Amino acid sequence: MSATIVPEAEAGAAAVVRRNFWRGVWRVMRRKPSRMAGAVILAVFAFMGIFGPMLYPDPLPRDTSALYAPPSLRHPFGTDFEGTDVLALVVTGSRYVLLTAVVTAAITVVVGAGIGLFAGFRRGRWDTVLMRFTDMKLTIPGLPLLLVLSTVWKFTSAVEMGLVLGLLGWGGVARAVRSQTLSLRERGFIEAARGLGLSTTHIVCRELLPGMAPYIAMNALIAVTGAVYAQVGLFFLGVLPFEANNWGVMLNLAVFSGGALTTTAALPYLLAPLLAILLLTLGIVLVVDAMDEIFNPRLREE
Amino acid sequence: MAPEHSPPGVRIRGLTVVYRTPAGELPAVSGVDLDLPPGTITGVVGESGSGKSTLALSLLNAVQPPGRIAAGSVEIDGLGDVVALGGEALRRARGRHVGYVFQAAQNSLNPLKPVGKQVLDLGRSHGVADLRGLLADARGLLDRMGLDGARVLDSFQHELSGGMRQRVGIMLALVLNARLVVLDEPTTAVDMITQATILRIVREVHAERGLTTLVITHDLGVVAEVADRLAIMYGGRVVEQGPTREVLAGPRHPYTRALLGAIPRLVGDIGEARALPGRPPTLAGIPADGCVFRERCPLRMDVCETGRPPVVVRGSRSAACHAVRDDDGDRPAVTAATGEDQS
Amino acid sequence: MAVLLRRLAGHVARGLVMIVVVTTISFLIIRSVPGDPLAARYQKLVEQGMAPDAAQRAVEALYGFTPKGSLWEQYVGYMSGLAHLDLGQSLSVPGTGVSTVLLSAAKWTVIPVLAGTLLSFLAGVVLGVYAAIKRTGVLGDVLAISGSLLHGVPQYVLALLLGAIFTTLIPILPAGGTADIMIDPGFSAAYIGSLIEHATLPVLTYALAGYGGWILAMKSSVVTVLGDDFILAAELRGMKRSIIFRYVARNAILPLFTILALSLGLLFGGAIFIERIFNYPGLGLTLIDSINNRDYALMGGAFLLITTAVVVANIAADLLYTVIDPRVRSGGEPA
Amino acid sequence: MKRLAAIAALVGLAAVAACSGTSGNSSGGGGGVYTTVDLNKPSLDVNAPINPWNPKGNSFWGYNAMRIAWAKNTLTDPNQFYPGIAASWDIAPDNSSITLHLQPGNKWSDGRPVTAEDVKFSIALAYTQGSTAFAVDPGAAGAASEVEIIDDHTIKITQDMNNPSVTFVRGVMDTFVVPKHIWESVLPADFWDTLKAARGDGPEAEAARGQIKALSEKVLAFAPPQDVSAGPFVLKRMNPGEALLVKNKNFYNAANVAPDQLRLLNTTGNEQIWNYLTAGTLDNAPFTAVPADVMKRIKATPGNKVVKGYSPVAVSLAFNQSKKPYDNVHVRRGLAYLIDREEVTRIASPEGGTAAVTTSGIHQKAAREWLGAELDTLEPYAVDPAKAEKEFTEAGLQKKDGKWALPDGKPWKVTIHIPAPFSDWVSAAKAITSQLTAAGVDAEVVTTADYPLYLSELAEGKYDLGFWLIALGPAPYNIFQRLYGSSNGWNILGGKVKHSPPGKDGNWMGGPETIDVEGVGTVNPGELTAQLNSATGDEQKAVIAKLAKAANQDLPVIQLWDYVNTQFVNTNRFTGFPGDDSDLLRQPSGVWIQLGLIKKKQ
Question: What is the mean pLDDT of residues A49-53?
């Protein structure tokens, strides 16, 4: 004996949740001002990435009588080795960094989540094959590989860079998503949904993905920050082709030819891109914190 | 180890539990009065979201945040008002005085520890001096429930089947000699045979140990099988209660009728079972005023919109419905609109 | 026990296959690195004032150390050497075995990485529990956000900042190297003290860089476990807080061991920035040097070592898992 | 960064003025630890053998590795040396032979005497390693034909006069000397016979050459169990960050070696040296590029002094003339008129270079010596947009909307390649592109991950323009072979000059085989450069004048700045450092110490 009213009740709740999603987003954002700050930061960076280069003349003006000028009203972060405004460099350089990060994150999440879901959902042979492949990917050390690859290849565009970083980086996401899928499966989730005659697409898109969204969001965070980290790092090490307005190149020149770590003259030149990285990371962190609450049913009270 | 004194009685008065939501505090249980007479099995039946599990948790003053008990009292013999309890006193009451068989008993055990160790943890938590004796009791209880007690105590959760886990859950609720036992959905997610076994065990243990038992379920059949008394919940209110037989034989509240009508019977046309139209209210959807059931009620009247339905007590039975009148005996006011005639 | 052995055997077999595959891939990539080691050496000699023809002859002396034959022959030679645990000869330090170079570099990576990781693991786990419990409070927020921030900040940024602070602004720590050369090496307090002093900055950077990840992982794991039914069940049974805490901690930390093992393996490769900045002569620096010198054998060896570390760490993690997670011990699906 | 390895190493090649007679100053002034960085091996390797031929070997020139003598690298004369293993030498007027007189009473650190046998044995080792003077190939220029021990302390080396070279003496002097009793096992007893056979013709010689080649690996890999040195110091121990050397009591001039101990610090980047310098740690820091502000800080550190000297090297922007439009001399000249070398130098190397006065192919200091007043007749290529415009127009380039385009109207982009690790080059290239872009020539910088890759891609002709070290003095042949040597198609094989077409045999510069030089006529610059090997005196000067003119007019490269050997010393612990313009600045401070210059501060 069992009552027939149960499934209907659950489906109803889910519908309500979806309807309230955007309202929920707004509420979650509003609850903590820091989250709003995060969203604003990201918006500013997005604006910089899209319109930043249009704000300044190309090429950027130089003032060769003011090399490594200290911060002033005209140059809030001083000037670089040839007298170009550092702030302008950071702003115009954001496009490269952000484009790479976005491409990387997209590839990481799509490929990683896809493979992870598929492996965890299908199990059996597919799972074994895909996970061996993932393990192998995780086994090959990323940064050393990038170092070697950067001598073999020349990453001439941000998209190319993001593509390589993304294709190198999806392993962790795949693993995490797979284990989440397996654990949901263990809770009888999938079998129950199947038993109710729901389609695979429905199960994956409506039942599994929402549950894993925080996980995937967190991994997207790691992917974005990882992409920023990797590309700026490679430029910092100087193994990637020179880009005039690039955060990593700025770090490299500040440290290795400006002496930013020895004296203060080039310090603003070092700090400006560092601050940009920190701020971008902070923005992402705050927004993901909000996303976590929006997607995580445990944190959501409704 | 036979209990010396008599089983405790429980008197719930005006219990209101609210959940804090962005839309303000919303009641999940509002103004519930319910008695659990000593030595009886009481069944609470309701759909998801009816507040029945919240009610059960209130017996332990264990409503999880963001919920809280806003008003009312839960008077338990030998403990007093648990709503007023807190800290260590409350913790000691849990398990010791009130045994709780968890809703998802399937996952109510620490997966990394064998059952026996968890029994010991329980004993240590409650200052049991004779831990060896406690283990023996646990084994005895498990044996009593038809398991190989010694083996089960050595097992991890994942090594036990659903029914076994459920029985372990019951064992953990009883092993400290609690006399008041709350079973939250004891038979959800087990197969029919196991369900029958579990219910038999609940009945037998209840009788043997002289307990006061509360069974929370969405399944009227379960209640019919074990409960002496029955309370039907809807939208956070008890809409009808009374001796099980009487209520089932002559439901007075339209909701009770609808529930009964929705049960497919082993004998007869499956088409006779009628699902209840509409949905149970969500927390935010519970009407603040008037009858909570009116949206789905076939007997809806104007008065249902505004006035809270009076609780009509007749003997040991009561119902909260404008359509049920004191003088109306067992029959509802409007016979024309019974479940059978619904389309 | 039998389960353990069977798992171990399976892991080792799979690990070997993986090492072979990864080695093959890295072999192919490394051999496609452009730039000729001999040409590099030749230019250097010419720039040092050697006549071009003499430089040519000098470089020919190095020829014996460069790989010869077709790619396939080189591959077969390399792999059969590996089978005998022979990693070949370094080209940048002719006559020195790759394994010698790697072993001497490895200890300068292993010890600081281990120390830094364990330090950050402990701190991250403890604070992660705290952040999870206080997740609705301001402190929990601060902990979580600072964790995310530290996790997101690249290692080199931390290294540069720490370096600037402790070697330039407040020069209390040495800028590089492994120990003060003026102190006789040996089991003396002075020497060990000097070793520790020199390792402080790298270890601190590893720890800081790792800490963010741990606090995040632990927090999320604890939040998950806190929401698990058995924790509520334990509460409803009146379990003591301390016991519940142990339940939470143990269940929450379990998944972190896999990450710990993985990160231990991966940090071998990730030490590049820190070693570069602090002039710490570990594997990362060796790898950079080997790439600059086009020292194929050394590059391959470094890759192999890093890969093997990951594989071994994986196996170790799994065995550890088997010991601590009863679900796996009895042959279930690993979580 | 790598800047060090390349340029800095150059400094090591340069040498000093003989002040061999060291004042026998005294006992009381000894002691102390001398801290520096070895420019030739800035990055140390604990695993490397104590072997001067090993590229990473823990033999440090001037400290525990000794050459027969130390080249002064004067502006013009390659045959001037400070004594090393040899105390003095007689060079035949025609360079046909050199007789070495070893330091009397000189002993290895293990107490055995340093003899002519050791020198001869070391020469045998040099043969296996390929050296200028000791070449196995029969046709090599400036090679020795005979090595003869006159007595225990005298040894005579004769040049093969069939194919002589002025670099012969330098080739002999540069030879490292190692103890025969330690190294003996490396070479077979019949080595000299094999060598004789190898220098002949026919299959037998071929086989002998093979044997010697096989020996070369053995020599390179040889690792003595411990350091046995004839230098002022002996290696005591290495750790990955530093090398510790202690004074060699048996060194011939030990009485005048002040420091008891020597620390060589490992550095992987310039910024580490800057930090050491601002902390006052280093007693001497060899040539290091220093940004202006860091310079201020370093100078402010107590005891620190800056010493400047001549560094026989310049950097240039080189053209690949097989790429259009750089095959057109007017394009090259036009670009030269647009580049403000003063500004580039100020941005890229404010302390380590002086802007080139013109393009002559020679460092300006040496150029004055070689060319005299003729230097002033060369076109200076001062910034002049009008002249640039004229040149570009002459080359057929078109100016559209203020931007220069190729003659066929297609857009023109000047792409300058540089190796990423050379940060001063990166800054310079960036500054040049900014200048060019401002003048209507679209320009960009492309970096290559590391120096080996840069060199190999450069040699493959992949770049249009790249940075190129030139003017590697003092030997005039070495100076001009950077412009008119193998990179431009001219190779000397068996004493004969052969020209390969662009794209072949490493010819990436792709210049024409002959050039019309105004006031000189048609010349084959490669032939002329090769003549510098044997020409002497005024003859040499005349050839150099022609080549300088050719380089100035034809502009295979644009000379950007001439390096200045900027070094740092700290006088808190030691005194007696060489002063400005001392030729000793071109040798590591180990040579200053062994010559007895360095004194402990009283």
Answer: 85
Spans of all domains in chain B: 10-227, 234-264+271-342
Query: How long a stretch of residues is chain A?
Result: 302
The pLDDT of residue A19 is above 70: no
Q: What are phi and psi of B300, to 5 degrees?
A: -55, 135
SS3 of residue B241 by DSSP: strand
The encoded tokens of residue D487 equal 């990179």
* Overall average pLDDT of the A250-255 stretch: 83
Range in A288-297, D216-225, D469-478 the model is least confident about: A288-297
Any B CB within 8 A of A12 CB: yes
Mean pLDDT of chain D, nearest integer: 87
Residues of C in contact with B62 (CB under 8 A): 235-236
Q: Where are the beta strands (DSSP E) in D168-221?
A: 176-177
Alpha carbons B309 and B30: distance in angstroms, whole number: 13
Which of the 8 DSSP states describes residue D376? G
Element of type H or E holding A86: helix A86-122
Mean pLDDT in residue range D420-425: 82
- C248 phi and psi angles, rounded to 5 deg: -60, -50
Question: Which of B218, B248, B295 should be substituted to probe chain A, the one whose Cβ sees the most A Cβ atoms within 10 Å?
Answer: B218
Whether a cis peptide bond, with omega within 30° of 0, leads into B66 is yes
Query: Does residue D499 register a pLDDT over 80?
Result: yes
Q: Which residues of C touch A221 (CB under 8 A)?
A: 148, 152
- CATH superfamily label, B10-227: P-loop containing nucleotide triphosphate hydrolases (3.40.50.300)
Whether the per-residue pLDDT at B199 is higher than 80: the answer is yes
Rounded to an integer, what distance in angstroms lies between the CA atom of residue D79 and that of residue D76?
9
In this structure, the number of other CB atoms found within 10 A of the CB of residue B3 comes to: 13
Query: In chain D, positions 271-330, which contact chain A (CB-CB < 8 Å)?
Result: 271, 274-275, 278, 289-294, 296-297
> Encoding tokens for residue A127?
């799972």
The C-alpha atoms of residue D205 and residue D199 are separated, in whole angstroms, by 7
Whether D455 has its CB under 8 Å from any CB of chain A: the answer is no
3-state secondary structure D300-347: HCCCEEEEEEEEEEEEEEEECCCCCCCCCHHHHHHHHHHCCHHHHHHH
Residue A68 has pLDDT above 60, yes or no: yes
Return d(Cα D36, Cα D308) in angstroms, integer.
17
User: D and C: touch, per 3+ CB pairs < 8 A?
Assistant: yes
Average pLDDT of chain C, as a whole number: 79
Return d(Cα D507, Cα D487) in angstroms, integer. Answer: 5
| Sequence-ordered list of residues with C-beta below 8 angstroms from that of D16, at least 6 positions apart, any chain | D70, D72, D73, D82, D578, D582, D583, D584, D585, D586, D587, D591
CA A110/CA A130 separation, integer angstroms = 15
Please state, for a pLDDT cut of 70, what percent of chain D lies above it: 95
CB D437 within 8 A of CB A88: no
A151 touches chain D (CB under 8 A): yes
* A2 confidence band (pLDDT: 50, 70, 90): very low
Q: Please indicate whether residue D389 or residue A2 has the higher confidence score (pLDDT).
A: D389
* Assembly ipTM: 0.70
Q: Is B115 helix (H, G, I), strand (E, B) or coil?
A: helix
Contact call for D9 and C289, based on CB within 8 A: no
* Contact between D102 and D108 (Cβ < 8 Å): no
Compute the average pLDDT of residues A168-188: 79
Tell me what pLDDT residue D546 has: 93
B121 at C interface, C-beta within 8 A? yes
Residues D197/D112, Cβ–Cβ less than 8 Å: no
Helix (H) and strand (E) counts for chain B?
11, 12
Q: Which domains does chain C have, with CATH numbers?
A: 106-177+203-294 (1.10.3720.10)
